[in-house]
Design a protein that fits this description.
This protein is mainly alpha-helical. It has four helices and three strands. The radius of gyration is 20 Å and the shape is extended.
Length: 158
């Protein structure tokens, strides 16, 4: 496990001069851990972390969806075989693709997203992440309701 995982790779804040990397990007560390960045940030040069800047407008939901599809690099890389752009640039990333009314994939002639011209289904990714957030909130509310009920039981028994 990476030492940076508990804080998503953030080690602090600085006012030192450094290149500021735009928000809505993904960082990947030397162990293959990927994190979506929703704010502008700086990176230390010795950390062996690199930023992936999309060729499209990445939203928080699409960024979170994509990083959730990227656990396999952590199985592939280690201190003895550090992750780098050269090593991951051609690794596949399985994403949902846009389809037409008959269910066939929509093909983009410029092939900027995939060699076969598939277009990621951004709407599906947005809806999936938003539904996941709502489900988590629902679970937290149910848990808190149980805690409150238990507290009422204990208070009533005293």
């Amino acid at each position: 496990m990476s030492a940076v995982l508990p804080n998503h790779g953030i080690i602090g804040k600085t006012d030192k001069k450094a290149k500021v990397i735009d928000k809505n990007t993904i960082t990947v560390d030397m162990f293959g851990n990927a994190f979506y960045r929703d704010t502008d940030y700086k990176m230390v040069t010795h950390a062996r972390v690199f930023a992936l800047s999309p060729k499209f407008e990445m939203t928080e939901s699409s960024g979170l969806y994509m990083t959730s599809c990227m656990p396999y690099p952590t199985k592939k890389f280690a201190y003895s075989n550090m992750c780098s752009w050269n090593k991951i640039q051609d690794l596949p990333l399985c994403l949902p693709v846009q389809t037409d009314d008959s269910g066939k994939p929509v093909i983009y002639a410029d092939k900027i997203y995939s060699p076969k011209g598939y277009i990621p289904d951004w709407e599906y990714m947005e809806k999936y992440i938003e539904a996941t957030k709502k489900e988590i909130i629902k679970e937290v509310v149910l848990y808190k309701d149980k805690v409150i009920e238990k507290a009422k039981e204990i208070a009533g028994a005293a």
